[in-house]
Write a structure and sequence with these properties.
single chain; 221 residues; alpha/beta; Methyltransferase, Methionine Synthase (B12-binding Domains), Chain A, domain 1; Rossmann fold; 2 domains; 5-stranded parallel sheet; 9 helices; 55% helix
């Protein structure tokens, strides 16, 4: 089934959603992630091999994104292709036949309504084999804490896209640490940097989504 993994990975990396999709031009009229996933399962492929393909493809596009070799549109197309595969895997995920690595709770902090960066991180981490619980935007600390308590052992990611909401990120970190001291907290966003991460006592900062995925994998290894 190694060929299935590579086929799925290529479609995800290149953003080939389905056969009708014109993107990318060099894969025009070829089967995409949707068709390949359906055919693989029909032919007896184990569902976890499809998830492996998603993870490999998202890892490749994530590395390219971090190196500025591709940009947001390409990452979004990769995520669309990945989601087509995940639709086929959903019954197996719900039944527990396919195991995910862990849970990742993410949201934009209170007072901030921006979600592009948060969405990119969520999609990349989902493609990395994690269950993602997206709380959306303008999330108060209490909502983060409630969700963490409902999902023991999860990781949490806080996003801020405004300098004016960085103080709310700091408050969220402090409140989460007080209520759930063992929770690993990742922070990110345009105005956030490593110095600010250190200042507020968060566990990890990355300037790109792939860095967050690599950190989660390192914690679990």
């Amino acid at each position: 089934m190694e060929n299935v993994v590579e086929q799925i990975a290529l479609c995800v990396e290149k953003g080939k959603v389905n056969k009708l999709s014109p993107f990318p031009p060099d894969m025009k009229d070829q089967d995409g992630a949707d068709e390949l996933a359906a055919e693989a399962l029909k032919n007896g492929a184990k569902p976890d091999t499809l998830l492996e393909g998603c993870m490999l493809g998202m890892d490749r596009i994530g590395v390219k994104f971090g190196e500025n070799k591709v940009f947001v549109p390409e990452l979004l197309m990769a995520a669309k292709a990945m989601n087509e595969v995940m639709k086929h895997l959903q019954p197996y995920l719900e039944s527990g036949e396919v195991k995910q690595k862990g849970k990742f709770v993410i949201g934009t902090v209170s007072g901030d309504l921006h979600d592009i960066g948060k969405n990119l991180v969520a999609m990349t981490i989902k493609g990395g084999g994690f269950e993602v619980i997206d709380l959306g935007v303008d999330v108060p600390p209490a909502k983060f804490i409630q969700t963490i308590e409902e999902n023991p052992g999860c990781f949490v990611g806080l996003s801020a896209l405004l300098t004016t909401t960085m103080a709310n990120m700091e408050k969220s970190v402090k409140d989460i640490q007080a209520a759930c001291p063992d929770t690993k907290i990742l922070v990110g966003g345009a105005p956030v940097n490593q110095a600010f991460c250190d200042q507020i006592g968060a566990d990890f900062y990355s300037s790109d989504p792939q860095g967050a995925t690599e950190y989660l994998n390192s914690v679990l290894s």
